[in-house]
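I hope you will forgive my troubling you with a question about protein structure. The matter concerns a single protein, recorded as an amino acid sequence and a row of backbone structure tokens. Please examine both parts with care and let me know of anything in them that strikes you as inconsistent. Here, with my thanks, is the record as I have it:
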Amino acid sequence: MYNVPVCNITFDGGLAPLLQARGNSLNSLELEYLPESVAVCLGTVAECCRNLKLLVFSHICLAPVRLEEVEWTNSRPSKRTKSNFVLNFLEELKLVDHRDCRYRSHHLKELLFLTPPTLKKLTFVNCDSLDDDTLREVFHSRSFKNLETLDVSCCKLITKDGINLYLDGENSLNYLRVWNCNLVSREDIENWKDQAEKNNWDLLVG
């Protein structure tokens, strides 16, 4: 039998110093399948990688840390006063959850409040804590008038009420995917298709 090496890397001791040194030169960041010891702090990502256009979190753990709680000084975390970091250049955000590292609703809200109103693509897959209230709160804050793609596949708490906020005809939405959402019916999907056709929207619903 082979001995499987234990990963001793942590976010504070490994990934965060790297982001601090190189983060602002990145225009895309995709963090996928990291070990549980590397629980990613959203505030650090936002502060160190302000020029991102693409941000992907897939099958990772997110740290229960508020945006105001971490500042990096000489590669060590310290307390800071609250600052509203926003990834002003971000165009696409994708979040994929899995059973071992469930994202909580406060993670989703923190992540969404890092996005600018000019966001174009928003994808959530298998996020059981994503609900209508979260979509509503962020919509009223950001409105996302430039949003072109909304994908909430396998998000079990989403209903037509949360989706309808983004179908006001005033944004740029041209693709909506609501596959395998338990509370969204086939009738809801057909109604959206009819609504798009009636209003001459360039909208693909699937």
